[in-house]
Each structure stands twice: as structure tokens, then as C-alpha cells.
Amino acid sequence: MSEAPAVLIGDIGGTNARFALVRDAGPERLQRLTVASFADPATAIAAVLAEADGPVDGALLAVAGPVTGPTAELTNGRWQFDAERLAVAARLEKVVLLNDFAAQALALPELAADDLVPLGGPAEAADATAPLAVLGPGTGLGVAALLAQGTPLVGEGGHVTLPAVTGDEAEVLERLRHRYGHVSAERVLSGEGLAAVYQAVGGRHARSPSEVTTAARDRDPAAEKALALFFGFLGTVAGDVALTFGARGGVYLAGGILPRLVPELRQSDLYPRFVSKGRFREYLEAVPLRLVTHPDPALLGLARLARQMRAG
Description:
Layout: E1 6-12, E2 16-22, E3 28-34, H1 41-49, E4 56-63, E5 67-68, E6 71-73, E7 80-82, H2 83-90, E8 94-99, H3 100-107, E9 116-120, E10 132-137, E11 141-146, E12 152-154, H4 167-180, H5 185-188, H6 191-200, H7 209-217, H8 221-245, E13 250-253, H9 262-267, H10 270-275, H11 281-285, E14 289-292, H12 297-311
Parallel strand pairs: 1-4, 4-8, 10-13, 13-14
Antiparallel strand pairs: 1-2, 2-3, 5-6, 6-7, 9-14, 10-11, 11-12
Helix pairs in contact: 3-12, 6-8, 7-8
């Protein structure tokens, strides 16, 4: 193993945290941790570094939540981050924080054809210089874009108000409003959201997202309806994201839920809803829509950024 100092990279979500080391090439796999098993990020990083081979002099951490300069916190978890304090605690020269979907956006040029499943639109974008967009339901809903010059653009798009297109969707949103007040896109387009939709359409028991999927495959009518609604809402939001960013280079669906549902995705109304934007239908029909199946795309993006920082 080379003794050149490595950079620790970490993709930290509300449920799981994935860490690797970067030296001169791609990420070297280290460890996956359950966020709830550690009181704070400093404790988790200490556990990871204890297993590292060779020196580590910095860290790039992608956090599933708002990042404000040197501080961040998980939207769906209790961890809070202070880059300067983490650097001191871990004895690192520097810790850099960024939003987890900034890392997802940076990964898009690194993905190979085998990492992608086409869901609609042309095989290649008509404009290779146009922005790319990525969104992904998991523990939450992340949204970001990658501009032509390689700069990620990140906001909190998962928390926009979720619209209804059909009567069934309006009924579900009305029931969820009684539960949550404001119904953001993330309230539906996430693991917890799929379970909430299942309950809203008459599911007998609270279920995990995997249980809803299994029930749908077993022909449970409420689960089948919940999954269909989930895909319809996702198509609407993905189309909105494409229009908002002008993402004619392509829209990529990521996150931990969708790669397990490829047959259902292909048979669903997701793509018809993606392009169903009235006068802008032709605009969206020119946008490739793809599913990301790479197991850790954020680590690819973080590795790319680590190499750029070392080179610069």
C-alpha cells in the first residue's frame, strides 16, 4: 500500500454512511456504517480511520442535508457537523463538507454505460454542453444539477410543495396534509413516503418500503396503487426538475429505492408523466431519462473532487 497521504471520503445519509480512501486513483472501499450506531460523526470517523492503511491528511464529507460553509446537519438524522472541530478531533489537516447530491452530480460524468438503465428519451443528449440533473428518493429526496463547466448546483429541491395531477393524487395529498401540514416532494418520494402513501390508500398495516414493494408484487391492491402513485409523482417532479435546471443533457434518477424496481419503473407511468408538460412536451422528449444503478455514485463524485483538489 502506498504511503502517500490519502483523503477520506464519506457519503453520509440519514440511515447509512459509506466511507472510502482516495489516493491517486478511484475510491478504495473501506467501510459502511449505520448512522444510528454512532452518537456523532466524529465517533464514526474515528472508527473508520482506525481501520485505514497509511496516512490520511484530509476528508471530504457529503452530508444529506443543508450545508452552510463549515457546518451542516442531517435532515433525517441527529448528526451535526463542524468541519473545523472534526479536523481537530480526527487530526486531519482539513475537512470539507458538501451536500450529498452535490457529490451525486459530480459523479454523473464518471458513470459508465453499465451503471445506467435508460427509461425514456433519446440515447444521447442533443446538447452535450447542457446541464445535467439528478434526483433520488432514499431516506429523503435529493436534487441537484451539474453545469457545463463541472460545477454542481444544489438547493433543497426535495422540500418543494408536491403537486397533484390526478384525482387520486389529490386525495392522497389531502390525507397526508392532515398528517404533516405541508406535503413536500420528500414526504412522498422517499422510503417513509412510500409507506405513507400505502397507508393513505387503505393499506392495512404500516409497512416499510421493501414490504410495500413485496406486497405489490404479491398483488396487494393497496400496495400496487401506492407504487403506481409513487412513480406518477416521481415522473412529475423529475419533469419539473428538468425544466427548472434546463437539464437537456439528461436527468438521472438515483437513490437506494429505485434500482430494486427496474421492471416496475419500466411498466409505470413515470416517463409519460415526465414529458407531460403541455407546450414543453417536445422539449422534454429530447431529454434522456436514466436510472443510476451504480451502488455508490456519491463516492465516485467525491473521488473526482478529491483528485481535482489535489491537482489544483
